[in-house]
């Protein structure tokens, strides 16, 4: 049940209205988030029905440097454009069962990545999202950045992509014994994840909310009219002239790039229990019990 508990808790937490999802000012939200982090801390390889033997197999099988396991993923069933999203909201409002089964994928993405020895997820961003990353096997070396601001104006000569100033953090090495990493708006919202091991696959679980490809709440941010992923390369230290003053921090310039050719993922099926269906069943049972308590149903009805 450990993975189910994590998914249900994440769904409950990230279903709150966006204005309540404020880690800095909403103590109730922060407390719930801490509970989710606690649940996530306990996850193990077996919760994904994986074994060390299977991890050995993943190391040499396949053609891509990274395996991707979709657990709850919007891209599987509802890659929505803005019009479709409105229609989907309407449909869900009129159909409780449908909304139970579809809501998780519109609220969050839950996935596992198995990174082969020496492979990496290139520098990429998580615009205006919450993210939790828990290593359950092997070791990940994470270089995080916190976005500060886009650099206005035309890119310098020889550069065609937008540039961003970001605070560069210390490199963090995380293992199965480490607490989950947390990212949120402008806090370590850009990162590179590297498996520096020569022998062991690194497997981590990733929870992201809201998912990529859904509309941002504030559509005035034209750069990210939709929440697309952007890949970056680090150009070097930012000029002191553009850095915030009085802070003992390292600022660098990141430049947007196309997805690096060497970064390829290969899908691996999640073979654990159907989390969404079980969540729906769980909710139906709770509704039935509530109705029974109101005297509207008998036990026979609950069994149907
Ligand atoms: Fe990421």
Written overview of the protein:
- With 304 residues, the chain is α+β, with helices and mostly antiparallel strands.
- It has two domains: 268 residues, Jelly Rolls, CATH 2.60.120; 31 residues.
- The protein is built from eight helices and 13 strands.
- Strands 3, 5, 6, 7, 9, 11 and 12 form a seven-stranded antiparallel beta sheet that branches. It has a six-stranded mixed beta sheet with strand order 8-4-10-2-1-13.
- α5 packs antiparallel against α6 and α6 packs across α7.
- It is globular, with a radius of gyration of 21 Å.
- It starts with a helix and ends with a helix.
- Bound molecules: fe (ii) ion.
- Fe (ii) ion binds next to loops.
- This is 2-aminoethanethiol dioxygenase.
- InterPro entries: PCO/ADO, RmlC-like_jellyroll, RmlC_Cupin_sf.
- Pfam families: PCO_ADO.
Q: Termini, distance in Å? A: 24 Å
Named CATH architecture of the largest domain: Sandwich
**Percent of sequence in beta strands:** 25-35%
Structural class: alpha+beta
CATH 4th-level superfamily of the largest domain: Jelly Rolls
Q: Give unreliable regions as ranges.
A: 76-102, 216-225, 293-304
Oligomer: single chain
SS elements, strand count: 13
Rg over C-alpha atoms, rounded to the nearest angstrom: 21 Å
Q: Domains counted in the coordinates: how many? A: 2
The mean pLDDT is: 79
The major pleated sheet works out as: 7 strands, antiparallel
CATH topology of the largest domain: Jelly Rolls
């Amino acid at each position: 049940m450990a993975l189910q508990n994590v998914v249900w808790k994440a769904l409950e937490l990230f279903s709150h209205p966006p204005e309540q999802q404020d880690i800095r000012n909403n103590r109730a939200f922060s407390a719930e988030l801490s509970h989710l982090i606690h649940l996530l801390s306990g996850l193990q390889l077996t919760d994904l029905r994986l074994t060390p033997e299977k991890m050995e197999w993943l190391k040499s099988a396949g053609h891509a440097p990274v395996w991707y396991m979709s657990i709850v993923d919007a891209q599987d069933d509802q890659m929505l454009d803005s019009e479709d999203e409105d229609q989907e909201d309407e449909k869900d409002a009129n159909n409780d069962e449908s909304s139970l089964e579809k809501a998780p994928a519109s609220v969050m993405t839950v996935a596992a990545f198995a990174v082969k020895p020496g492979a990496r997820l290139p520098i990429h961003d998580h615009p205006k999202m919450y993210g939790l990353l828990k290593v359950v096997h092997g070791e990940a070396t994470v270089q995080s950045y916190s976005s500060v601001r886009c650099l206005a104006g035309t890119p310098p000569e020889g550069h065609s992509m937008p540039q961003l100033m970001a605070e560069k953090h210390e490199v963090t090495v995380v293992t199965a014994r480490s607490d989950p990493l947390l990212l949120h708006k402008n806090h370590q919202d850009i990162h590179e994840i590297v498996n520096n091991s020569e022998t062991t696959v690194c497997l981590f679980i990733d929870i992201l909310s809201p998912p990529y490809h859904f509309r941002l709440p504030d559509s005035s941010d034209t750069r990210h009219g939709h929440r697309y992923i952007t890949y970056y390369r680090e150009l070097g230290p930012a000029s002191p002239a553009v850095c915030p003053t009085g802070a003992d921090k390292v600022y660098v310039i990141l430049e947007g790039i196309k997805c690096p050719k060497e970064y390829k993922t290969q899908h691996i099926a999640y073979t654990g229990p159907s989390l969404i269906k079980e969540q729906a069943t769980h909710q139906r049972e709770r509704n039935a019990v509530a109705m029974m308590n109101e005297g509207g149903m008998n036990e026979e009805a609950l069994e149907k």
